[in-house]
Write a structure and sequence with these properties.
By secondary structure, this protein is an alpha/beta fold. The protein folds into two domains: 7-368, Alkaline Phosphatase, subunit A (3-Layer(aba) Sandwich); 400-468. The protein is 30% helix and 9% strand. It has twelve helices and 15 strands. The strands form six sheets. Strands 10-11-5-12 form a four-stranded mixed sheet, with helices on one face. A hairpin with a 5-residue loop joins strand 1 (27-29) and strand 2. Helix 1 (60-68) runs antiparallel to helix 2. The termini are far apart.
């Protein structure tokens, strides 16, 4: 998404910073040994914002194959990043065999080498050029979504390398902030946030910590955003998460709307807006992930014998603040930037305690702030988010994250009419609308349960006080 950001200037920013972008000579072999080169996505392609046309592999084994051309690399093997085309061909075949129908007609394995030029992503690219881009930000683990999101917020996935975990039992950064009486918030886009049910300390937190994107916009306008705000996209197939192969242009609109909510808000001059992705989604990158990641040291044992000593694939990352000089390519002074660098930055700013050895030893992002006086210019002046090119042909089918959220909401403890706690099974997972309705209704019932429970506890406490009198 940002490989061609500075390709017309020899991969050097206007500030004179080197940028580890594409030259156009990068390639991967196909299953016949033919070299498939990177190429710019055609702006006239009717499916340009659905590239690479299918859902690539993103789990631990698939990522290993993309990096090492084998799903079981030898210890300390050197990644070559030459397995993306072959692995994508396998992902397409698997999708078609299972009749998921996520893959667009005509999708070829070579499309994993298609890259966006800045003109196709004017919002993300404009912010990357106008403020700071990180060209060495890596996923915390070489695997899929939920383990990397756990690292981003807790410094560990408790050994997990897949998306099946219902809830992490470790403390999160939200609990650490509460320990310091520092406010925080999590906002879903158009439904209750998935992250609320990722950790025990968020699931038991007061409801005023959670909301929707419209609530974020209002609080930004009012200047009442907390010290740390975490935003989620919409997860469904027609949503703005930019998960392959969903509509990337809708994510451009989300980034645009978030930026202007902050920029037009009352606290813009003291805000750092971080845009990044939990993992690479199976998409090609030419930079081999490094070893030397600090294991969490939390007593958890990695699945597949993995020691969490190497990072995942590089991901796009943009840092936005009026206190950042334009054209910045930010690399930390010490250590590799990964998702736990956000945690380390929070520790540095607010004095919270580290969660694991990973975030304790992570590189901080505070060094990107170099200006004493906030800038007044707007790099996105005159820039609009691109219009969607077409509708996703499979938009009514639930996404993987939809199903994960439904399963977590189903596990919420709610008393039935007989007074027993019960879990339930989502009655219908056949459509996005059915899952959305279930998440809404089950969450509402859970909130009512929590409210009634708290009212009962309050009544008991008041009764005890009266007896003592």
């Amino acid at each position: 998404m940002l490989g061609y950001l500075y390709s017309t200037s020899g991969n050097k920013s206007p500030a004179g910073h080197d940028f580890d972008g594409l030259t156009g000579d990068e390639w991967n072999p196909d299953d016949q040994g033919k070299q498939v080169k990177v190429y710019p996505i055609d702006p006239k392609d009717p499916h340009r914002y659905f590239m690479p046309g299918g859902d690539p592999g993103e789990g631990f084994q698939a990522t290993n194959y993309q990096l090492f051309s084998t799903d079981d690399p030898a210890p300390a093997a050197v990644p070559t990043n030459k397995g993306f085309v072959i692995n994508f061909k396998a992902a397409i075949a698997s999708d078609l065999a299972k009749h998921y129908k996520d893959t667009l007609a005509g999708t070829a394995a070579s499309q994993i080498m298609g890259m966006y030029m800045p003109d196709l992503l004017p919002v993300l690219s404009g912010l990357a050029k106008g403020y700071a881009v990180c060209d060495a930000w890596f996923a915390s683990a070489p695997t899929m979504t939920m383990p990397n999101r756990a690292f981003a917020l807790a410094g560990t996935s408790q050994g997990h390398l897949d998306d099946h975990t219902k809830i992490y039992t470790c403390p999160s950064i939200f609990g650490r902030l509460s320990d310091k009486n520092i406010d925080w918030a999590i906002f879903g886009y158009n439904r209750e946030p998935l992250t609320q049910h990722d950790f025990s300390d968020t699931q038991h937190a007061a409801q005023n910590h959670f909301g929707h994107f419209r609530d974020f916009q209002q609080r930004a306008a009012d200047g009442t955003l907390p010290a740390f705000t975490f935003l989620e996209p919409s997860w469904d197939s027609s949503g703005n998460s930019q998960h392959p192969n969903y509509d990337v242009s809708l994510g451009e609109q989300l980034i645009h709307d978030t930026y202007y909510a902050l920029r037009n808000g009352k606290n813009w001059e003291s805000t750092l807006f971080i845009i990044t992705y939990d993992e690479h989604g199976g998409n090609y990158d030419h930079v081999p992930p490094p070893y030397g990641a600090t294991p969490p040291g939390d007593g958890s044992v990695g699945e597949f014998g993995f020691g969490f000593d190497r990072f995942g694939v590089r991901v796009p990352a943009v840092l936005v603040s009026p206190l950042i000089a334009p054209g910045t390519v930010f690399r930390a002074d010490r250590g590799v930037i990964d998702h736990t660098s956000v945690l380390r930055t929070i520790h540095d700013l607010f004095g919270t305690e580290p969660l694991t050895q990973r975030d304790k030893n992570a590189a901080s992002l505070t060094g990107v702030i170099t200006l004493d006086t906030p800038r007044q210019d707007d790099p996105l002046t005159g820039v609009a988010a691109p219009a969607p090119s077409s509708n996703h042909p499979n938009s009514s089918v639930p996404s993987k994250i939809d199903k994960i959220q439904a399963s977590r909401v189903a596990a919420l403890p709610i008393r039935n009419e007989k007074g027993f706690y019960e879990e339930t099974t989502p009655p219908d997972l056949s459509s996005t609308s059915a899952i959305s309705d279930f998440i809404r209704d089950r969450t509402s019932a859970w909130k009512d349960h929590i409210r009634r429970r708290d009212e009962r506890r309050q009544a008991k406490n008041q009764a005890k006080k009266k007896r003592r009198r």
